[in-house]
Amino acid sequence: MATYAELSKEELQQKKEQLTKLYKEWQGKGLTLNMARGKPSAEQLDLSIGLLNNIVEEMDVVREEKNIDLRNYGGLEGINGARELLATMLEVEPEDILIYGNSSLNMMFDTVSRAWVKGILGNTPWGKLDKVKFLCPTPGYDRHFAICEYFGIEMIPVEMHEDGPDMDVIEKLVSEDESIKGIFCVPKFSNPQGIVYSDEVVRRFANLNPKAKDFRIFWDNAYCVHYLYDEIKILNIIEETRKTGKEDMVFEFCSTSKVSFAGAGISGMAASEANRKDALASMTVQTIGHDKVNQLRHAIFFERGKKVAEHMKKHAELLRPRFEIVINALEKNLGGKGIGTWGNPKGGYFITFESMEGCATRIVQLAKECGVVMTGAGAPFPYHKDPHDSVIRIAPSYPSREELREAAEIFTICVRLASVEKLLGEI
Ligand code: PMP
């Protein structure tokens, strides 16, 4: 089979006509489909409905355990059962964990905010410095970049490789530039590429020698237990930094947003004792305590962590076919045509598609006009600037399988059409 680049102008014109006809047929159906955001489907949310069961009897148990009434104020660092649950997910000790509200993103934002206003461990508040920069493995999670933009933190893109970000660049930059204060990393099933950091990459992170004393790795382990197939282990950054004596360099985040309820789970941070104390000093001003009743519901439902693996297998059963629908459509309709490549992630929430250079914006626009909402082209890049206009994030979790089949079919038509337009010099 010839690739599109090998076709003559006449053949391309002919293809364009066929594809336009197909596109218009789909457009005529007036569908409204969405492959934009990584939200769990209603079926997935139903898996945790047991959380909402009556917990009156267990209230007594946990009240005694900490000598506090969970309905009342207090317990800023979180109840034991919730700390055990997140400790199991992150493979750390419960004492390493501080529990927050429902959103780890909120905790990341607040962590930057505290550094901005108060400074980390006695260092100059970032907000008082002329310049603060973060390294941003790219493509990455758009909301990490949004936090940087909000605070006016300059973002320096760092290329992603198959086993994690370019560590040569990271090591060099952090050791030379004191204004580089942080890096956002999603070490397991990265958003959007589904990349898993190798042992070597994790070790190199644990061995960084940053010029800034208050440089911090924001280790966002959002997909730590989110396997589609078999379990995949990565090295534990908290353990590795303990070995190198650099445990203060890491804040590790996670939540149950894609374990229980995306809008009503619990989140937390694993960090060194010094970092936890530093955070608590500000948290105690921010709040008298997070929702301990929800923490209890989670502790009970997941048996303080013991039930997580089994529960995540049920998520995988719902997610796996959805990922496979998209991958199969890409294979079937785009394979061998030389107009795009895509990842085949083993976990997480996203598939990344890479089009021919200069086509992503057009593909997303064509999809939208045909009833399929995709994440905006450029979103996975700092300042929304994809230098090659080629990366598109596909989120297969939310639509039903039937909807997804249609959405994936339409998407591949849009890719083919935009590629033909590109080869004809029209875009
Ligand atoms: N981090 C990453 C990498 C994510 O993909 C997401 C959700 N899309 C979040 C954090 C948000 O997590 P939470 O719901 O705990 O705020």
Number of strands: 13
List bound small molecules. Answer: 4'-deoxy-4'-aminopyridoxal-5'-phosphate
Q: What is the end-to-end distance? A: 25 Å
Tertiary shape: globular
Mean pLDDT across residues: 96
Largest sheet, strands/sense/barrel: 8 strands, mixed
Tell me the structural class: alpha/beta
The percent of residues in helical segments reads 40-55%
Low-confidence stretches: none
Sequence of secondary-structure elements: HEHHHEHEHEEHEHEHEEHHHEEHEEH
Number of helices, counting only DSSP H or I runs of 4 residues or more: 14
Main-sheet strand order equals: 2-9-8-7-6-3-4-5
Query: For the CA atoms, what is the radius of gyration?
Result: 23 Å
Describe the structure.
This protein has helices at 9-28, 42-46, 56-66, 80-90, 104-117, 142-151, 167-176, 199-206, 237-243, 273-286, 292-301, 308-334, 360-369, 401-423, and strands spanning 33-35, 97-99, 133-138, 154-161, 164-165, 180-185, 216-220, 250-255, 267-271, 340-342, 351-355, 372-374, 391-394. The chain is an alpha/beta fold. Strand 3, helix 6 (142-151) and strand 4 form a beta-alpha-beta unit. Helix 1 runs antiparallel to helix 14 (401-423), helix 8 (199-206) packs across helix 9 and helix 12 (308-334) packs parallel to helix 14. The model has no long low-confidence stretch (mean pLDDT 96). 4'-deoxy-4'-aminopyridoxal-5'-phosphate is lined by residues 38, 103-105, 141, 186, 191, 220, 222, 255, 257, 262, 267.
